[in-house]
Design a protein that fits this description.
The complex is a heterodimer of chains A (about 260) and B (about 500). Chain A has a two-stranded antiparallel ribbon. Chain A is elongated and about 85 Å long. Among the domains of chain A are: about 80 residues, Four Helix Bundle (Hemerythrin (Met), subunit A) (Up-down Bundle), CATH 1.20.120.1200; about 30 residues; about 50 residues, no CATH class. With about 260 residues, chain A is mostly helical. Chain A is about 55% helix and about 0% strand. In chain A, strand 1 and strand 2 form a beta hairpin. Chain A is built from ten helices and two strands, in the order H-H-H-H-H-H-H-H-H-E-E-H. Chain B has about 500 residues and is mainly alpha-helical. Helices cover about 70% and strands about 5% of the residues of chain B. Chain B is built from 20 helices and five strands. In chain B, the strands form two sheets. A three-stranded antiparallel β-sheet of chain B has the order 4-3-5, with no helix packed on it. In chain B, a hairpin with a 2-residue loop joins strand 3 and strand 4. In chain B, helix 7 packs antiparallel against helix 9 and helix 12 packs parallel to helix 18. Chain B starts with 9 loop residues before the first helix and ends in a 5-residue tail after the last helix. Classes of the chains: A mainly alpha (about 260), B mainly alpha (about 500). Chains A and B meet through helix 5, helix 7 and helix 8 of A and helix 1, helix 4, helix 5, helix 6 and helix 9 of B.
């Protein structure tokens, strides 16, 4: 019995070797992801990197004997919040991009210097004063979830209840900012089709052409060629165009027929 | 494990609960009542809720207790500030509810989701749509503001901070006129506010690391017994201060103030300028006087420097403004510096002076902004200062009232502002911060210059040819202005009654 206890590396309040290995592998990755989250250009990539940071944090929480926090981190942040981010990105559209022009000259450099200074100050202060773990065993005596529940429904019950006001405000605010009531009737299919065939209409009467379907290439990212051999931009999805994923049609285009050339050839 | 049910004395937190409950009723009204009836229900409902809350505050005025598992402290300062916030909230609501001033409706956009300048916006405006959601949002903000100065631990304080801020972020972006400016203001306020909240939270974590608790009493005891790690304590104080100094718009965390005050709909600006300042300084005082009082030799130098910077820079920047809302915003920055003088005093006179200052400042500010809503031209409010030239000849009453509020802001005798300034400066002098008093008096002189410059402009210059006109003041705005002007005058001439009440109440419970 004593032997087993002595061999157990998981004495509470101390970092075991497996935990250290886990930390030194995941922490640099988390920092890397967090930093690149700021620097990548596309919002979707940013969101995915953020999800990675959050998952890493969740693993750390679990490794540090806070299983509830870890699971909540995954369920709420990685699950719900990140999905909301992606929903928003989807609604706004991947083709909308932020302007990266600095309106205040040298702002980015100044901000970086400030952030670095702040980080150095904080790391210096924390590093100097680190004394070790305290209170983990006491906090988890009756089990991690039970301990949290006890606190949440006694000591912090007031704050816990008041947060509901915050959530209602957020929901109400989202409605105010996002909900648009139609002031006019939505046009019916009949009206739309009459509109399309009216003279001078910019919309084609027929459906839009499909993207390119060729002997050489068959994909959504090539514009269709019209009967006269020119590519039709309306045949490719707007989103693909915005992402810059549309292939060049030059290779597939028909050569213009030169004068005097025999068409029957 | 034994579960002991938490004890909450509902009578003591009832004012907050009444306001929250009214806000919830307002949300239900939004959901179920026909569009054209909502306004008629929301306005009386909101005001009735606030009145009942105020009556209850009067009923429990002698309470000194810690309740809700020591999350909330109901004591003299908390009740004085809650009462002030509720009354000023009513004045703010009256301005928000005003629909007679703008030819196309109230001060809020017809449909926030419509893109500025778009066809959808035009049709929404023509259809006379309105967003009555602002009433429950205002009530949520008021509830958060009432909890903020009563919060007795850092977690409750943080939650209250968010509850009061979120509706304000939203409402700042809902102006009917100059919508892009308003949306920019809301976004700036939101991003910077979120950032400062993060600082606050980080600081709270450090204070927890220092004392092993977020409760103010435990932090106080930890400091007295010198129990924890000083680096954690100092880092915690610094970071928590950032979050609170942002809310009171002290230099160097003030940069959002002019933009937000200018961009937000003026009734919201009035409400937020008065009530946020009261709530935030109340929380500030409780944290520093109860939780961190043992470390006062550490934070007093920091706050002294910030107070001086806030007074000097706020007054100087206000001098250069040409927009009256921006000018009042910078003047509000300068006033934060004056109020900080009272906090830095760390004596009983300092606390009661701060409380008195907050109450009087709230009434004066709402009054001044209410008058800004009245001076209009074809495109809405005429906020450029040149529009105020000759106002005294066109509408002497309005010009005289605005002069009264400006003189009170400047701290001229016979107005409430003088008594308030005298109270905080004498408290600072008593505590030995002579430097602060010198800077305070000097910057008051600078500040008086730009207030009086505006008064001179109003009375001794000829009006512009096609200058703005003053709307015949409609009922609700008139009521708000009358309330504010009466309080400003009465407290200037007979301050004793309120001074005694506040003196008796100036004792924190812990």
């Amino acid at each position: 019995m004593n032997l087993i206890l002595a061999a157990n590396p998981f004495t509470p309040g101390q970092t075991g070797t497996p935990e250290a290995v886990l930390f030194w592998i995941l922490a640099p990755l988390a920092v890397l992801a967090a930093v690149s989250m700021i620097f990548v250009k596309k919002a979707v990539h940013s969101a995915l990197l953020l999800a990675w940071v959050m998952i890493t944090l969740a693993i750390f929480y679990i490794a540090e004997d806070a299983p509830f926090l870890g699971i909540v981190q995954i369920v709420v942040y990685t699950g719900a919040v990140m999905m909301l981010f992606l929903f928003i990105l989807m609604l706004v559209g991947v083709d909308s991009s932020d302007s990266l022009v600095e309106t205040i000259k040298g702002q980015r450099v100044m901000a970086m210097i400030g952030a670095l200074g702040f980080a150095v100050l904080l790391i210096g202060a924390i590093g100097r004063s680190y004394t070790g773990f305290a209170g983990l065993t006491a906090a988890n005596t009756d089990g991690n979830v039970e301990g949290l529940a006890q606190l949440l429904f006694t000591r912090y019950v007031w704050a816990f209840e008041v947060v509901s006001a915050l959530l209602i405000t957020a929901a109400l605010g989202a409605m105010v900012l996002g909900h648009r009531e139609r002031s006019s009737e939505r046009p019916t299919q009949r009206e739309l089709s009459i509109l399309r065939f009216r003279p001078g209409s910019k919309l084609p009467g027929a459906p839009l052409p499909n993207p390119g379907v060729y002997a050489l290439h068959n994909a959504v990212d090539v514009p269709a060629l019209l009967p006269d051999g020119t590519p039709d931009p309306s045949s490719v999805s707007r989103v693909l165009k915005a992402r810059g994923d549309v292939l060049d049609t030059k290779a597939f285009e028909m050569h213009t027929i030169e004068e005097g050339e025999d068409e029957s050839k | 494990m034994n579960f002991v049910a938490p004890v909450i004395n509902y009578s003591q937190v009832l004012p907050i609960l009444i306001v929250l409950g009214t806000a919830l009723l307002g949300v239900i009204v939004e959901a179920f009542v026909a569009r054209d009836r909502r306004y008629q229900i929301q306005v009386p409902l909101s005001i009735a809720g606030l009145v009942v809350a105020f009556v209850w505050i009067l009923k429990i005025h002698a309470t000194t207790a810690i309740t809700a598992e020591s999350a909330v402290a109901i004591d003299g300062p908390a009740l004085v500030l809650q009462g002030a916030i509720v009354i000023l909230g009513i004045a703010g609501l009256l301005l928000i509810a005003e629909r007679k001033l703008d030819s196309s409706g109230d001060a809020f956009v017809a449909q926030a989701a419509a893109i500025p300048g778009s066809e959808a916006e035009r049709t929404a405006t023509l259809a006379k749509l309105t967003q009555t959601e602002v009433f429950p949002l205002t009530l949520f903000a008021i509830a958060g503001m009432m909890l903020f100065p009563a919060a007795n631990d850092l977690v409750t304080m943080f939650v209250a901070l968010e509850v009061l801020s979120l509706p304000l972020y939203l409402m700042s972006g809902l102006a009917r006129r100059r919508r892009l400016l308003s949306q920019e203001a809301a976004l700036k306020y939101f991003l910077l506010g979120a950032f400062s909240s993060a600082f606050f939270l980080y600081g709270a974590a450090f204070l927890y690391g220092y004392s092993g608790s977020v409760g103010f009493r435990q932090i106080r005891e930890a400091i007295q017994t010198n129990a924890g790690n000083d680096v954690f304590l100092l880092t915690g104080i610094a970071l928590v201060s950032v979050g609170l100094l942002f809310k009171v718009s002290a230099v160097p965390f003030h940069s959002w103030t002019p933009d937000v005050y200018q961009g937000a709909p003026t009734p919201v600006t009035a409400f937020m300028a008065a009530c946020t300042k009261i709530a935030a300084f109340g929380a500030f005082a409780r944290l520093f006087y109860v939780g961190l009082s043992g470390a006062r030799w550490d934070w007093r130098p920091m706050l002294t420097v910030i107070a001086i910077a806030t007074m000097v820079l706020g007054a100087l920047w206000a001098l250069t403004q040409t927009d009256i809302k921006r000018m009042l915003a910078y003047s509000s920055v300068a006033h934060s510096g004056f109020i900080l003088t009272g906090i830095v005093a760390t004596n009983k006179a300092g606390l009661s002076g701060t409380l008195f200052y907050l109450v009087t400042y709230g009434f004066t500010t709402i009054g001044a902004f209410a008058i800004v809503t009245l001076v209009r031209n074809a495109s809405g409010e005429a906020t450029h200062i040149s529009g105020y030239a000759g106002l005294g000849k066109r509408s002497p009453w309005i010009a005289m009232l605005l002069s009264l509020f400006l003189l009170a802001l400047a701290g001229i005798p016979l107005t409430s502002g003088f008594v308030a300034k005298f109270a905080v400066f004498s408290a600072a002098y008593e505590s030995g911060s002579t430097v602060l008093v010198i800077f305070g008096v000097l910057t008051s002189a600078i500040a008086a210059f730009f207030y009086i410059r505006l008064i001179v402009l109003m009375f001794f210059q000829d009006p512009e040819e096609d200058g703005p006109t003053v709307a015949a003041a409609p009922l609700m705005t008139t009521a708000a202005i009358a309330l504010c002007a009466t309080v400003t005058l009465v407290l200037g001439i007979l301050p004793n009654s309120l001074v005694h009440v506040i003196d008796a109440a100036s004792r924190f419970v812990f």
